[in-house]
TrEMBL record:
<keyword id="KW-0560">Oxidoreductase</keyword>
<dbReference type="GO" id="GO:0004497">
    <property type="term" value="F:monooxygenase activity"/>
</dbReference>
<keyword id="KW-0472">Membrane</keyword>
<dbReference type="GO" id="GO:0016705">
    <property type="term" value="F:oxidoreductase activity, acting on paired donors, with incorporation or reduction of molecular oxygen"/>
</dbReference>
<keyword id="KW-0408">Iron</keyword>
<dbReference type="InterPro" id="IPR050479">
    <property type="entry name" value="CYP11_CYP27_families"/>
</dbReference>
<keyword id="KW-0503">Monooxygenase</keyword>
<dbReference type="GO" id="GO:0020037">
    <property type="term" value="F:heme binding"/>
</dbReference>
<dbReference type="InterPro" id="IPR036396">
    <property type="entry name" value="Cyt_P450_sf"/>
</dbReference>
<keyword id="KW-0349">Heme</keyword>
<comment type="similarity">
    <text>Belongs to the cytochrome P450 family.</text>
</comment>
<dbReference type="Pfam" id="PF00067">
    <property type="entry name" value="p450"/>
</dbReference>
<dbReference type="GO" id="GO:0005506">
    <property type="term" value="F:iron ion binding"/>
</dbReference>
<keyword id="KW-0812">Transmembrane</keyword>
<dbReference type="InterPro" id="IPR001128">
    <property type="entry name" value="Cyt_P450"/>
</dbReference>
<feature type="transmembrane region" description="Helical">
    <location>
        <begin position="6"/>
        <end position="22"/>
    </location>
</feature>
<keyword id="KW-1133">Transmembrane helix</keyword>
């Protein structure tokens, strides 16, 4: 029994040390601003964001620092801490890039891609599915494929028009 505990503890220590060394080598910037975009940014992993933990990604911050029913405050705080472009990592290691600047959002909306894939924010998708009386879909942020394209094509003209409806 003690041998198993020591072995598991050793494996856990090795995983965390290896993770720490990999994270240290990446040397992620602390914050991005439009006035200073370092030329060394080359991959999604160079985008600033909360510390990534093995098996948890960055989702651990929502159980420690933020309340799940106040996600808007969590993302406002992430924007304040890390800038207009923030990296969040799902537990499976899937990178999720959040854009807070209107120019960046506009570039993504105007990018010629008919069906882009974006991992959904699971809790919001589940909530919206549980309330069909209030929500016709899981929303443009979480929808994928043709449903997303339909929502976007109906919404984009209104968002990009100078008219106020």
């Amino acid at each position: 029994m003690n041998v198993i505990v020591v072995l598991l503890a050793g494996i856990l220590i090795i995983v965390f040390v290896k993770y720490y060394l990999v994270n240290k080598q990446r040397n992620r910037p602390k914050r991005l601003s439009k006035s200073h975009l370092p030329p060394q940014l080359k991959t999604v992993w160079d985008i600033p964001g909360p510390r990534i933990l093995p098996f948890l990604g960055t989702k651990w911050i929502f159980s420690i620092y933020y309340k799940i029913n106040k996600l808007h405050e969590a993302y406002a705080d992430l924007n304040k801490k890390y800038g207009d472009i923030v990296l969040e990592v799902a537990p499976a290691g899937i990178p999720i890039v959040h854009l807070f600047g209107k120019d960046d959002i506009e570039k993504v909306l105007k990018y010629p891609s008919k069906y882009p894939f974006r991992p959904p924010t699971e809790i919001i998708a589940i909530y919206r599915k549980s309330r069909p009386d209030r929500y016709a879909s899981i929303g443009i942020v979480n929808e994928q494929g043709e449903k997303w394209h339909h929502l976007r094509s109906n919404l984009t003209p209104h968002m990009t028009s100078p008219k106020i409806y």
